[in-house]
């Protein structure tokens, strides 16, 4: 325990005070928004449609969905798309991502969500959290980058070691290996065509 505490102290000494404040702010923001989502889920008086709207409203400001879409497509395939295709892809990707997120939340059975301290990883911030049920723990890492004039935004979520962005990129690349961008867009227009993998979230 002493070795761990000393190691943490050494790490903190190399983090500029201003950045330490940002770490705390990002962690607080993530915790507040995640707790807001859980509160909406636990509110059984809410109609499901209204509940889902409140959940998306609570969580969306924390995410940069456009950046997630671009990263999920991958640089090579992104450059092949014309402006109209990019716009439609962004819109469809956000809808499908949100639908899949809400589907995972339907599996929530009153587990405890623990949000831990934010960590500095190069020029990114990672906020580690756990979904705790009895002896079971599901680890989720929210990965933030600093977006110009908009503050810290989530660009990826890692669930049980699996990156959502990388999983989508693999799926999209597999389709585009033998099919066209328009074929991919057609699949994205279909509800349930793609889902967020692993775990309940």
What is the topology?
Blueprint: H1 2-13, H2 17-42, H3 48-59, H4 65-73, H5 75-78, H6 83-105, E1 112-121, E2 124-133, E3 136-147, E4 151-159, E5 162-163, H7 164-176, H8 181-188
Describe this structure in words.
53% of the residues lie in helices and 21% in strands. It has 201 residues and is of the alpha+beta class. Strands 1-2-3-4-5 form a five-stranded antiparallel sheet. Strand 2 and strand 3 (136-147) form a beta hairpin. The chain is globular, with a radius of gyration of 18 Å.
Q: Structurally, how many domains make up the residues?
A: 1
* Structure summary, number of beta strands: 5
Mean pLDDT: 84
Number of helices: 8
Termini separation (Å)?
32 Å
Question: Within the CATH hierarchy, at the fold level, what is the topology?
Answer: Nuclear Transport Factor 2, Chain: A
Determine the strand fraction and express it as a percent band.
15-25%
Write a short abstract of this structure.
By secondary structure, the protein is α+β, with helices and mostly antiparallel strands. The chain has helices at 2-13, 17-42, 48-59, 65-73, 75-78, 83-105, 164-176, 181-188; strands at 112-121, 124-133, 136-147, 151-159, 162-163.
Key terms for this structure?
single chain; 201 residues; alpha+beta; Nuclear Transport Factor 2, Chain: A; five-stranded antiparallel β-sheet; 8 helices; 5 strands; globular; disordered N terminus; disordered C terminus
């Amino acid at each position: 325990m002493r070795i761990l505490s000393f190691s943490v102290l050494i790490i903190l000494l190399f983090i500029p005070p201003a950045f330490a404040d940002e770490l705390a702010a990002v962690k607080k923001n993530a915790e507040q928004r995640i707790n807001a989502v859980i509160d909406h889920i636990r509110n059984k008086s809410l109609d499901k449609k209204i509940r889902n709207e409140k959940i998306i409203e609570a969580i969306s400001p924390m995410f940069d969905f456009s950046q997630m879409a671009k990263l999920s497509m991958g640089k090579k395939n992104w450059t092949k798309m014309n402006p109209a295709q990019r716009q439609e892809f962004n819109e469809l990707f956000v809808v499908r991502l949100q639908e899949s997120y809400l589907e995972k939340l339907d599996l929530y059975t009153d587990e405890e969500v623990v949000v831990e301290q934010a960590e500095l990883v190069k020029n990114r911030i990672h906020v580690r959290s756990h979904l705790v049920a009895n002896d079971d723990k599901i680890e989720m890492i929210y990965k933030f980058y600093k977006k110009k004039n908009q503050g810290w935004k989530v660009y990826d979520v890692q669930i049980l070691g699996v990156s959502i962005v990388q999983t989508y990129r693999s799926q999209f690349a597999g389709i585009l290996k033998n099919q066209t961008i328009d074929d991919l867009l057609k699949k994205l227009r279909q509800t349930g065509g793609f889902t967020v993998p692993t775990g309940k979230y």
